[in-house]
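STRUCTURE:
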């Protein structure tokens, strides 16, 4: 039996992306022996697509051929889901329901990527840690798994995501928690710009990005910097007044003829020797002290404060006596010449009343020894259980470290390596950090108390630093 209708479609298949326009030419041949009026309907289109046919009706005499042009516009927003659609070009008679023909046309709709990342709040101000809520949205037309990451230009921020990845169908969104940690600045506010990425697991797919700012308050309040600046200005003015007076007195002294060599001997020769450090006092014998009091030293007296003493070992490591400074609250750079800085870090463990305690101090231990401990800025006896940070900085990375606590088995040490890995050491020692690129900083804190006991004070009597090999 001869079909009364013949239909062909060009092109026979199509590839497109959301928002594109497609054109199909549908050729119809009237194979019947009567005049027919044919209409066209395009089936199986994605939701939101629009269709226009020109002309709307083809009037054909027997054995006559006509062409209907179909223009299809695919939606942009929301985009239709990616995949393969089978369209049907259905041509049928307007007057006879039994006369129709449908030709299938495959349509491949490409996937589009539209990943957005937004952080709330955009700016977090804090100490060593900060927290953001992320809104990740998939505005594309394909399901995707997104892996989350965050970086800063200095690579000093350590991010942690909960969860670390999200699965998003097209047109959906999800939330994630971003926690960040970074070393505290010493005396100036630090703004760290974060770039947050959500990367699809598809090869070559573009990642969605967002930004956030982490503002860190300094370890030492700005008022201490102001006091230091005022002190320096006062010292400069005093020097400007004293130096001319000394020059005048020296000129007058030179004009006089010396009468007696012994009478004109430098006054510094009669000055008493400088006071020994605590460590030196405990090691000196009584006879040596007596002889020192009888014979004046020829070296001039020094008014500089004592600095930490250090002794080198055979393997290049240095033993630093932390009790060689103080007593009282220390300046932020008290140990700078030994290659590290020390401060309290209240952001890691909450201690009531010590939220702003960022100082360290030298205090007397139960046995009378001087120890280095965390403290508040105005009272060395307060906030001694706040964790202590020992920061080596980028220019003085430690290759090994061993801390000597005042009381054994009361502290633990979290080690942050240069390769951004971490580990907790209960023995307060790292033998070799070269495999991690060196030690960035360590955080010393009390061990978890048991049985309701109060946490131990963070108190150190010594530190050994080894070079990075």
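SEQUENCE:
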């Amino acid at each position: 039996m001869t079909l009364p209708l013949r239909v062909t479609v060009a092109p026979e298949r199509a590839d497109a992306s959301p928002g594109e326009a497609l054109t199909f030419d549908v050729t119809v041949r009237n194979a019947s022996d009567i005049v027919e009026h044919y209409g066209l309907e395009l089936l199986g289109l994605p939701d939101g697509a629009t269709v226009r046919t020109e002309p709307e009706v083809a009037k054909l005499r027997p054995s006559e051929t006509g062409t209907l042009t179909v223009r299809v516009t695919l939606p942009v927003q929301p985009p239709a889901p990616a995949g393969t659609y089978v369209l049907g070009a259905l041509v049928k008679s307007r007057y006879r329901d039994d006369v129709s023909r449908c030709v299938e046309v495959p349509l491949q709709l490409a996937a589009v990527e539209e990943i957005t990342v937004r952080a709330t709040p955009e700016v977090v101000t804090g100490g060593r840690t900060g927290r953001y809520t992320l809104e990740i949205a998939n505005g594309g037309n394909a399901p995707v798994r997104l892996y989350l990451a965050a970086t800063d230009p200095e690579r000093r921020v350590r991010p942690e995501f909960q969860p670390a990845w999200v699965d998003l169908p097209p047109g959906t969104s999800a939330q994630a928690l971003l926690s960040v940690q970074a070393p505290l600045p010493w005396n100036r506010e630090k703004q760290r710009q974060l770039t947050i990425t959500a990367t699809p697991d598809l090869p070559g797919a573009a990642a969605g990005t967002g930004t956030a700012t982490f503002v860190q308050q300094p370890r030492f309040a700005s008022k201490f910097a102001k006091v230091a600046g005022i002190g320096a200005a006062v010292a400069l003015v005093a020097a400007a007044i004293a130096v001319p007076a000394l020059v005048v007195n020296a000129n007058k002294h030179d004009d006089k003829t010396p009468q007696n060599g012994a009478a004109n001997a430098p006054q510094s020769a009669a000055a008493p020797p400088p006071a020994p450090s605590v460590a030196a006092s405990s090691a000196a014998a009584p006879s040596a002290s007596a002889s020192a009091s009888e014979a004046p030293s020829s070296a001039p007296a020094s008014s500089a404060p004592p600095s930490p003493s250090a002794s080198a070992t055979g393997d290049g490591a240095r033993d630093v006596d932390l009790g060689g400074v103080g007593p009282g609250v220390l300046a932020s750079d008290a140990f700078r010449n030994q290659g590290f800085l020390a401060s309290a870090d209240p952001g890691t463990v909450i201690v009531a009343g010590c939220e702003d305690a960022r100082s360290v101090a030298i205090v007397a231990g139960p046995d009378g020894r001087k120890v280095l401990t965390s403290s508040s800025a105005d009272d060395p006896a307060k906030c001694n259980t706040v964790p202590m940070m020992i920061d080596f900085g980028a220019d003085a990375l430690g290759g090994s470290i061993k801390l000597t606590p005042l009381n054994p088995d009361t502290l633990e040490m979290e080690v942050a390596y240069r390769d951004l890995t971490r580990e907790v050491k209960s023995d307060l020692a790292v033998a070799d950090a070269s495999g991690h690129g060196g030690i960035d900083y360590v955080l010393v804190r009390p061990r978890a108390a048991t049985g309701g006991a109060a946490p131990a004070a963070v108190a150190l009597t010594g530190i050994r630093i080894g070079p990075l090999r």
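REMARK: Helices lie at 222-255, 278-283, 286-294.
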